[in-house]
Design brief:
The protein is mainly alpha-helical and 119 residues long. It has five helices and no strands. About 15% of the residues have low confidence.
Length: 119
């Protein structure tokens, strides 16, 4: 049934960026790596157009009071301990290897531009 419905009809009530997202997905097969950076930027455009932040609650969370933790998961002392026990230096500071995140955007675009597995 889904294959019989045109993509623009299926997504007629969705942001136009999702049509480009879906069209990109239709060009893929098992051996083609998705352009994650392109897909990320499309979703980022949807968020910006709707004035939505990653930290905003979902519609089903509107009545739930949440406590935002300000704990930092990676400290320099943790990194020093990891250096001694693992035998290599763990990076300190905000980069793709630490758990320090911006609650308004926990997924920076450079995460999606990288291809660490070489696929």
């Amino acid at each position: 049934m889904k294959r019989e419905v045109e993509m623009d009809k299926l997504l007629e009530n969705c942001p136009v960026e999702l049509l480009a997202f879906a069209e990109h997905l239709t060009t893929l097969n098992y051996y083609i790596r998705p352009d994650y950076s392109f897909l990320y930027h499309l979703l980022e455009q949807v968020l910006n157009a709707g004035n939505i932040k990653f930290s905003d609650p979902y519609d089903w969370e509107k009545n739930v009071k949440t406590k935002i933790s300000s704990e930092v998961f990676s400290t320099s002392s943790d990194a020093e301990t990891a250096t001694h026990s693992l035998g290599f230096e763990m990076p300190v500071g905000r980069n793709r290897y630490t758990l320090e995140v911006d609650p308004d955007n926990p997924f920076p675009s450079d995460f999606f531009a990288a291809n660490p597995l070489g696929f």
